[in-house]
Design a protein that fits this description.
alpha/beta, two-stranded antiparallel sheet
């Protein structure tokens, strides 16, 4: 079982049960709503960014609901999330991105200057801002409501398929 489908199953069985509370944005999601958000993200990843099984996608953002939907949508597609610690130095970002070779990087508005700073040093085909700001990358909110919210075809994954690449400080 992959994580994204787990939420989808709960979304079908208990669509009105509360699944997630975003205390920062003061928003609550039911399993049905969360499942539809994951579906939208999966459609964006596949149709707009050409993300497939085994592809890697980096994310540089503070904690937020979109981070969760990104992880679960990538899981649904059999792709891999590369979360980046916002406390890293530019050289560390460049190393991790060159090493992990993501097809896309998602980031929030507070980190767009950091992304702009390493954008010239490392090739990442797609830059997506989670906020309505297109200074460095494509703003996801601009097209969010136009994305389909129905499930995509299930991708076969195996227990040994990676879902995360996490870089640590070595301790």
């Amino acid at each position: 079982m992959i994580y994204g489908d787990c939420v989808g199953r709960w979304g079908r069985a208990f669509p009105e049960k509360e699944a997630l509370v975003d205390a920062i944005m003061n928003r609550r999601y039911t399993y049905g709503e969360l499942s539809r958000e994951i579906n939208r993200m999966a459609h964006f990843l596949r149709t707009e960014l050409d993300i497939w099984k085994g592809d890697r996608v980096a994310c540089l953002s503070f904690n937020r609901t979109e981070y969760i939907t990104l992880f679960l949508a990538l899981s649904r597609l059999g792709a891999v999330l590369v979360p980046l610690n916002f406390r890293l130095a530019k050289g560390e970002f460049v190393y991790f991105l060159k090493d992990s070779t993501p097809k896309a990087i998602f980031f929030d508005q507070p980190h767009q200057e950091v992304v702009a700073g390493f954008k010239v040093d490392v090739h990442v085909p797609h830059h997506v801002c989670l906020d309505s700001d297109n200074g460095v990358g494509r703003p996801l909110p601009d097209i969010w409501d136009s994305l389909p919210d129905h499930p995509m075809d299930e991708v076969e994954t195996e227990p040994h398929d990676p879902q995360l690449i996490i870089y640590t400080s070595g301790t």
